[in-house]
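Section 3.1: Structural characterization of target chains.
Under the original work plan, the team committed to producing a structural model for every single-chain target entering the pipeline before any wet-lab resources were allocated. The record below documents one such target. The sequence was received from the expression subgroup and is listed exactly as submitted; it comprises 109 residues.
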Amino acid sequence: MKAQSKQNGKMLVIDGGFSPAYQKTTGLAGYTLLYNSFGLQLVSHQPFTSTEDAITQETDILSTRQVIETETERKLVRNTDIGKELLQQVDELKCLLSAYRQGLIKEQH
């Protein structure tokens, strides 16, 4: 598997990892690329040994995060397309409430 992302002249390539063939070379069980309001992070995962080890030795998959890029200003819901739609719905509901309070809309029973 190969994932690529290019933005603002930067390219990230994540190649393989979950395949046992790659695990022998890298020692890792894969990567996850995360993007959230804090920024861009690369998470590497250690291999899962076995269900028996997880139960008897209480082991889990160890994941390590590396911050690649930090957002200087966090992105908020209102800054997204869905956030803009939600703000529009809020405005519409405020107009509806105002019309109701002015008696322009009557309650139905």
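The longest helix spans residues 81-101.
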